[in-house]
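Students often ask why we bother encoding 3D structure as a string. The short answer is that it lets us treat folding as translation between two languages. Here is a chain of 67 residues written in the first language.
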Amino acid sequence: MNNYALNDIVEMKKQHPCKKSMHWQIVRMGVDIKIKCLGCGAVVMLERPYFEKRLKKIVEKAEEESL
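And here it is in the second language, the structure alphabet:
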């Protein structure tokens, strides 16, 4: 499941402890993936295999920028 991209909104299997949202925005991609909670703004960095295992679905794809 590698069809996610930068700035996509994703839903994880477990809710964030802030209890405001299960949706996260991908803010950095590389060996690790940094995601930001859309409920409280907390930022978490996860290893890619850990992220992919816990990813439930892609809620919204980011708009592609054209050069």
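Translate back mentally: Residues 48-54 form the longest helix (7 residues). Keep this in mind for the problem set.
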